[in-house]
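quick q for whoever's on today - can somebody do inverse folding on this one?? i tried earlier but teh output was garbage lol. tokens:
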């Protein structure tokens, strides 16, 4: 837009138009960000459709992003919200996904930005009316994949990932479609790195009495899942667990700090919740993890469908996601 210093004051704002969400696409076309009229913002890297920042109206960052994270497309992003698809971890025993790298290809493929949509406040008051939320849509299909990924997973698929920024929270949802004739299976997960001030005062509720797999301890002696105690989960060493919360997806998982609610996560069609913190030694071993004591300021609580496989027949779609509410 051409700046006109002598612009008549009557044209300074468009009369009658409520405040809109601002959209910004970076010059090199590598990121999309959106800001609500009330100040909340979100930034998404097209590489992986990875959310790398989410701030509240006061500018407080809600996500943890490593200072050494690669944001140039050479490696999956360490921090923010990387999207895991079509395999969680690696699955050497699952022939169809056995050749894929850890957590699949979605987090290291370049997605397309499909556009934004907004929803307005229903309030009639002229001062508070305006965009209440902004939704950014991203798409991935085989045409976006490298030859290597296409060879390793030769199925026809379409993904639409929607990131919706609201005043109280952030919603991420994924639609997975089988565009081919052959049936295939997948796992998916939203690998959210939440920013906290001090991991020693963090507790997580909503996982009480739930079965879980422990990737640090390995299988239990009986081969059955472990059962979480009835108390909240707190951390004092490396944790890497896959919970199937007893309350189901709609029951909120709450991250508290110093006993105060910090985040609430409600899932849709995502039966599992992974809790991960690499702690001191593993953080030391990750080249893209900085600062090295950054593990004290993060907790991954990851909504996913990762136990067993979601199967899609020709033309079928699956949809799932999470709503994250942030307390002040
Ligand atoms: O290092 P990455 O491939 O990004 O994986 C980071 C972590 O992701 C999940 O939380 C898994 O449960 C962990 O086992 C894994 O270490």
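ok took a stab at it. sequence:
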């Amino acid at each position: 837009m051409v700046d006109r210093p002598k612009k008549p004051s009557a044209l300074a704002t468009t009369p009658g138009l409520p405040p809109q969400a601002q959209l910004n696409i970076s010059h090199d076309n590598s990121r999309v960000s959106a800001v609500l009229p009330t100040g909340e913002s979100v930034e998404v890297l097209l590489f992986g459709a990875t959310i790398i920042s989410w701030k509240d109206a006061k500018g407080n960052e809600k996500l943890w992003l490593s200072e050494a994270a690669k944001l140039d497309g050479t490696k999956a992003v360490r921090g923010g919200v990387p999207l895991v698809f079509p395999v969680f971890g690696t699955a050497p025993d699952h022939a169809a996904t056995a050749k894929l790298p850890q957590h699949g290809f979605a987090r290291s493929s370049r997605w397309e930005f499909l556009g934004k949509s907004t929803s307005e406040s229903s309030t009639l008051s002229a001062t508070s009316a305006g965009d209440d939320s902004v939704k950014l849509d991203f798409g991935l299909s085989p045409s976006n994949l490298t030859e290597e990924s296409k060879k390793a997973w030769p199925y026809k698929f379409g993904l639409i990932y929607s990131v919706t920024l609201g005043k109280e929270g952030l919603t991420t949802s994924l639609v997975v479609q089988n565009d081919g004739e052959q049936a295939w299976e997948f796992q998916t997960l939203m690998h959210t790195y939440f920013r906290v001030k001090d991991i020693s005062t963090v507790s997580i509720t909503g996982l009480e009495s739930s079965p879980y797999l422990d990737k640090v301890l390995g299988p239990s002696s009986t081969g059955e899942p472990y059962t979480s105690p009835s108390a909240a989960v707190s951390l004092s060493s490396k944790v890497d667990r896959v919970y199937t919360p007893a309350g189901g997806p709609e029951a909120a998982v709450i991250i508290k700090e110093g006993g105060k609610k910090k985040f609430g996560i409600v899932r849709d069609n995502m039966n599992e919740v992974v809790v991960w913190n690499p702690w001191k030694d593993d953080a030391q071993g990750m080249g893209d993890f900085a600062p090295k004591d950054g593990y004290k300021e993060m907790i991954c609580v990851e909504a996913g469908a990762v136990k067993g496989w979601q199967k899609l027949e020709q033309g079928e779609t699956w949809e799932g996601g999470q709503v994250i509410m942030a307390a002040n």
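fwiw Residues 1-13 have pLDDT under 50 and may be disordered. also The CA atoms of residues 285 and 318 lie 36 Å apart. so keep that in mind when u check it
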